[in-house]
Amino acid sequence: MHRVSDGDAVPDAPIVDLGMPVPGGAFDEHNPPDAALVGDCVHCGFCLPTCPTYVLWGEEMDSPRGRIYLMKEGLEGEPMSDSMVQHWDRCLGCMACVTACPSGVQYDKLIESTRAQVERRHDRTAADKALRGLIFSLFPHPKRLRLLRGPLRGYQRSGLDRLVRRTGLLERMAPQLAAMEGLAPRLGKAEKLPDRALPAGQRRMVVGMLTGCVQREFFPGVNAATVRVLQHEGCEVVIPRSQGCCGALSVHNGREVEAQKYARALVDSFADAGVERIVVNAAGCGSTMKEYADLLADDPAYADRAREFAEKVRDVSEILVELGPVATRHPLEVTVAYHDACHLGHAQGVRSQPRDLLRGIPGLELREIAEAELCCGSAGIYNILNPEPARELGDRKAANIVATGAELLVTANPGCLMQVTTAIQRSGHPMGMAHTIEVLDASLRGLPATTLTGRAVTAPNPVPSNQHTTQG
C-alpha cells in the first residue's frame, strides 16, 4: 500500500466508494469514516491557510486534506499506525476547513467518526491514558468541579499559583498538567440560579437553559448574566436541576458511548420542562447538542426524542436576535474586539448574531481581529493535550487581538476565555475579558464600561481581584 510521508503532496488518485472498510485495515465496521464523504475532497487546497496546524508546520499530513487521505488509506486496508493517530490527534477540530471548502466536504463528520475508531482500536501510551482519564474524570462532572473550587480558590489566593509558575518546575516536569493549572481562571463566589426565572415584563417565550460544566463552576457570572438578559427580553427561563454534561468533550475526543450516555441524560432532563427553545451560552456545547440527532440516530428509544431536542437548541445570541430587542440598551463607551469561537462560527455558522447584539449597544465600537478564522488553540482539551502548539496559536491570536487596540476582548465560549486570557497575560498588554452576554447584561443594567474593562490582566502574575471571574 502506498504511503505518503510528511511534506509530500497528496496524490490526485480517485477515491472509490468502498462501502465497508477492508478487513485488517484501520477501521472496523461500526461507523467508519464514510468513503463517499472522503471522496468529496478534491485536494484543492482552499483549506490549507485556514488550518491551524498546517499554518504552524506546513506539513501535508497535518492539513485537512492530508488527514482525509490517511482516512482513505485506512479504508483501503492500511492498518492504524501511531503516525496516523498522531496526525489525527493533532487536529484541533476547529472546522475552519468546513467553512473554507468550496466542495462542501463534511470534515466534521469524518474526523468525529475517525476519532471514535481511534479510541476503540488504538492502544495509547500509559501516560496518555492517565492524562485523558484524569481529564474525563473531572471536566464533564459539575459536582466534582464544584468540590475543586474551594481548594483552587485557596491555592490562588495564597499566591502559590504565581510561585509555581515563576519556578517553571511543573512545566518542565509535566507540561500538560502545567497547561491545565495555568488555564484555570481565578474564581469568585458561585452564583445560585433559580429553577425558574420569570420575565421582567410580558412573556414572549419560555426557554430552557443549559448551565454546563466548566461554565457553571468556573464562570458562574456568565450563567447569571444570561438569565438576567433573557428576563429583560421577555423570556421565562427554566433551569432543570437534574441536568449534567452535554457530552461535547466526549464527542470531540471520540468517546462515543460516553457521549451518548450524557446526551440521553440531558434529553431526559429537559423532557418535561415545557420549553420552546433550549438556550446555550457555550459554543462547544451548542454545536454538539445541535447534532444529537446524529449522535443517537441508532438508538430506537431516543432517536426521535434527540431530533426534537436538537431542533430546539439555539445559541443565546440566536434567541435574542430572533426575538428582537425590547429592553433599553444603556451606553457603554468601550472598544471591543470580538473573537469568533470556532464551534460557534465554523460549526454552527453563528457569526452575525453576536456582532448584531454588540453593535446594538450605544457607544460601543466593534473592531475585527486579523486572521479571525484561525483557532485560538483552546479546542476543548487540545490546549491540555498539546500545550506547545496551543500556546503558539494562543500567542498568535493574542497578538492579533492586541493589534486592534481594543479595550475589551469578547467571545462566547469558556474555553476561549481561558485560552485567550492566558495568552493576553503573556503578551503583557492590559485588556478586559468578557462573554458576549456579559457585555449586553452590563448595558441593560446601566453599568459602567469599567465593570468589564476593570477585569484587565496586565502581567503573567495577575492580581486576583482583576481577573475575569471575580464578579458576584
TrEMBL record:
Residues 31-61, 82-105 form the 4Fe-4S ferredoxin-type domain. Pfam families: CCG, Fer4_8. InterPro entries: 4Fe4S_Fe-S-bd, 4Fe4S_Fe_S_CS, Cys_rich_dom, Glc_ox_4Fe-4S, Helical_ferredxn. NCBIfam families: PRK11274.1. Binds 2 [4Fe-4S] clusters. It catalyses: glycolate + A = glyoxylate + AH2; (R)-lactate + A = pyruvate + AH2. The keyword Transcription does not apply. GO terms for molecular function: 4 iron, 4 sulfur cluster binding; glycolate dehydrogenase activity; metal ion binding. Keywords: 4Fe-4S, Electron transport, Iron, Iron-sulfur, Metal-binding, Oxidoreductase, Repeat, Transport. Component of a complex that catalyzes the oxidation of glycolate to glyoxylate. PROSITE patterns: 4FE4S_FER_1, 4FE4S_FER_2. It comes from the Bacteria. Its EC number is 1.1.99.14. Its cofactor is [4Fe-4S] cluster. This is Glycolate oxidase iron-sulfur subunit.
